[in-house]
Amino acid sequence: MSARLMAIGRLGLRSRAYRRHVYQKIAALTLGAAFVSPAGQRLQQAVARFGTPAHHPDVRTAVVAHVYYLDLLPEILACRATLPDGAPLHLTVPSERIEQARHLLRGIPGAILHPCENRGRDIAPFITLLNAGTFDSYDAVLKLHTKRSPHLLDGEIRRKLLFTMLAGGRNATLRLLAAFEKPDTGLIGWKASYRAAPSYWMANEARVRAIVRRMGMPDDAVRLGFFEGSMFWFRPAALARLRHLQLRPEDFEPEERQLDATLHHAIERCFTISAWADGFSVRGLDGRILK
Fold it and tell me: Using CA atoms, how far apart are residues 70 and 284, in angstroms rounded to an integer?
């Protein structure tokens, strides 16, 4: 039995966490599929035209995305289009696909390519840029990746839902960015992808605790609450603890289609811990604090 199935089993068939898991799966395959369909997207755009224009917050923004599947690059560009004009787009791309990516991006200003090893999924390339200070000049950065999750029935739908919720329209994005005018805002993500039930540790708790100790924090600072799929908005200063680890690509396991228990799965659960450690808040898209 896979680690994911074992984790679902640990939720308990009568538990609130299990019921929420089943509800979200059904909702994604029905309402979610309709929401991200071409007809659903057209309806959202039509409704948005009647909304009051949001003000432009004084927030320096950018997008960082790991692009393994180059055919999904248009979806990344559509998300970037909802940000304030001129927002830089940092793209990490496996080295063997960098020339193809460069060809696809011809004529698109502000796109910066970062070749990387196909290792550690989206996390290792992201940590490399974080360590290099790539995000230091921004107040808020949108972290995305071309997640397909072919092992999941709703994998494609989940990616499209995340993209739509995090950056589905200009007004919604501007309203979200206003939360970063509050200096304590560290991370913002979609509440429906936020996991805090103990079973979502899966096989990663011991490794997370070891990482937290390396970040100079006591063991009681460890708490579970993360955005599954590792897509969210973040303030670079909120990830200082992770940056101090100075992880390198070779610290991550070689790609073997693992579903759990790798360094990148552990780091996925440490983004929020890093933010909380330095007094930053983790919020939903509506600005409410998540715990």
Answer: 29
Q: Give the pLDDT means over successive 10-residue stretches in the chain (291 positions).
A: 51 63 69 77 76 87 98 97 96 98 96 97 98 98 92 82 95 95 97 95 97 94 96 98 97 95 98 97 96 88
Classify 86 as helix, strand or coil: coil
- Determine the residue type at 84: P
Q: Measured in whole angstroms, how far is the alpha carbon of residue 36 from the centre of its chain?
A: 18
Both tokens assigned to 160: 């499209």
Closest listed residue to residue 249, CA positions, set 132, 119, 121? 119
Structural contact between residues 134 and 243, judged by C-beta atoms closer than 8 angstroms: no
Beta bridge partners of 227: 194
- Token pair 């960098």 in the structure block, residue: 98
Q: E strand or H helix at 54, and its extent?
A: none
Measured between alpha carbons, how far is 199 from 47 in angstroms, rounded to an integer? Answer: 39
> What does the H/E/C string look like for 210-253?
HHHHHCCCCHHHCCCCEECCCCEEECHHHHHHHHHCCCCHHHCC
The Cα–Cα gap between 32 and 54 comes to 26
SS3 61: strand
Instruction: Render pLDDT for 88-105 as a digit per residue (tens, 0 to 9).
Output: 999 999 999 999 999 999
Residue 62: strand pairing partners: 141
pTM, two decimal places: 0.91
